[in-house]
Design brief:
The chain is of the alpha+beta class. The chain is built from 3 helices and 4 strands. The radius of gyration is 15 Å and the shape is globular. The protein starts with a strand and ends with a helix. Belongs to the UPF0045 family.
Length: 101
């Protein structure tokens, strides 16, 4: 399964930033050992249901450690029997983009 999620405190620090709290969530993801990718809006994680949801839960708890209220947005692609889709899905799109019309 692939999960794209975004977790952040509902409030910001005195500078208006949520980067420090979000960095703690991303640290949890990266230390999980699961395939992952982070961009400006979401973090993607790939693995089995229980392991991915555990990472999302622990990342959320990492943010919650510094905030009384947390926002979590999650989207999942559940496709049993497939792995390596974090890169494969993008590769399939790139293949079609490189086709000459």
């Amino acid at each position: 399964m692939l999960v794209a999620f975004s977790v952040a405190p509902s409030g910001s620090d005195e500078s208006g930033s949520v980067a420090k709290a979000v960095a703690e969530a991303i640290r949890v993801v990266r230390e999980s050992g699961l395939p992952n990718e982070t961009n400006a809006m979401f973090t993607l994680v790939e693995g089995e249901w229980d392991e991915v949801m555990d990472v999302v839960k622990r990342a959320t708890e990492a943010v919650q450690a510094s905030a009384s209220r947390v926002s979590l947005v999650l989207k999942a692609d559940i496709r049993p029997g497939y792995s390596g889709q974090l890169a494969a899905k993008v590769a399939r799109i790139e293949e079609h983009l490189s086709d000459t019309p």
